[in-house]
Amino acid sequence: MRWGFVFVTMIAALLFSILPVTAAELQAQPVWIAVNDELLTFPDAQPELRGGTTYVPVRFVAEAMQADLTWVPVTSLVTIYKDGRHITLDTANGILKTDLGEQHRVDLYTQDQRLMAPTRLMSESLGYQVSYIASGPISRIKDDSAKLTDEELAAKFKARIDKEKAKWEAEHPAQQPVPEAPKPDKVVYLTFDDGPNAYTEQILNTLKEQGVTATFFVLGPQIEQHKDLAKRMIDESYSVGLHGMTHDSKKIYRSPQTVVQEMEDCNKILTQATGFRTAIMRVPYGSKPWMPQNYRDATVNAGYHMWDWNVDSYDSKSSTRTADETYTEITNQVSGKKNAIVLLHDKKTTADALPKIIKWLKDNGYAFERIYGSTPPVNFWNDQR
Ligand SMILES: [Zn+2]
Q: Hey, what's the signal peptide range on this chain (predicted)?
């Protein structure tokens, strides 16, 4: 392993000179990294906040986790192993692969010849939780062995962080004082079912214009008809989940195996169209009463995390449904929720209502997130698996 590291350091500079550097082009601000109750120290490349995401030198964070790391220079693949879990960073293509079979587009770049990767996705995919302590700011990677609360940790290291922050500010006089990123206490997940179809493009355009993310639960036959839209979803970093093949309750719910088979077939078509697999699914018509324990066991064993919703836009309730009715339904139901999972569909009135819906959510302080395989699932059975 040690010789591996030496080799790695020697060729790293060569390897990464060809990487895309989108994250590296954003202005960086300092951030501190803790693993459980300890604040890490980095010898050369420093962790940094870029565009709201914390990036860390991969090797040192892996060492602090006591994880094993291998790097195969020929294939540009870095794999991190921790307690039976693993992730692979495809540094040539900017892809993070999880052991759930998911692939995420991520910004991987080098700083002082060190590979930098997004902390949260990397750590959560290895089974850790990540909290963001705005007063530091500290990105804290933790598991069951963490003893301190976030507040206690911030207090313990306050003096050191203040000193280092003052030093950083002195070295970067041209930059504005760092505004503390407010921790989003209200999160919304926009989810679109039944596509891709003729209305998906308008939805994708709106999301892009508004700079917000979302999740699409797609049907296999629809992907086959609109491969370009499925590819666009992946290329523009939306999350894609499975919605099966037939959308027919008589067919899909015949047995636990038929549900699994529909998801597997849908995933296969997704992979053929985009090169990507997913580990999240949403069953047609919602999981209750259709997905009792033995059905859920089967999909969990197949590696899937099941999602329903807690806000129903009723955008498919009737053919006369208007964009304004969908907007009103959502704003009524989202109000007061800290974690809103909004069910929408790829259809014309929804696409037309979307700019107004997004504006309302932004005005009301919601941060937009997409669903990952590592996001704790929300479903009607409270099945957290
Ligand atoms: Zn549906």
A: 1-23
